[in-house]
Amino acid sequence: MDERRRAPVGLDRDAVIHSQRHSMSKKTPKNKPKRSSKRKTSPHLRPEPAQLRAIERLLEAEDFAKAIERVQQLVQRFPDHGGAQGLLIKALRGGQGSQFAAVVVHDWADRHPQSLFAQEQLLVYAVEGHCLMLAERVAEQVRALGGEAPYGFPLSDEIKTALCTLVDGTRADEAAMVQFDRARLCMNGFAFSKALRYLEDLELTSARNNRITCLFHLERIDEALALALESWRRDDENLFALGWAASLRLYLGDVEGASGLCTRLAMMTARRVDEALPQLIALLLLDQPEAAWTAYERTVDTPWWEGVQDLTTATMTHLGACAAARCGELKQARRLWQEIEQASPGFALAAENRLAAADAETLLPSALEMHNAIPASRFSAMRNQVQAQRTHQAEKTLIGLSASNAYLRALYINGSEPLRQAVSLVLMHRLQQHDTAVAEVLRELVRLPIGTSNDRFKMLKALREAGQLGEDELIEFWDRDELRAIKLFEMEVHREPTDSGLLEALDSLLDEARDDYNDFQFNACESKLQSILASFPNHPQTLLMLASIRHMARRRTEAEQLLRQAIEANPDYLLARCNLARALIMRGDLEAASDLLEGHREQHRIHILDLIHLNGTLAMLESARGEDEVAESQLNLIESFIEDDHEAEQLEQVRRLVNHVKAKREGFFGRTLRALARR
Question: Could you tell me which InterPro entries the record lists for this protein (predicted)?
Answer without folding.
Answer: TPR-like_helical_dom_sf
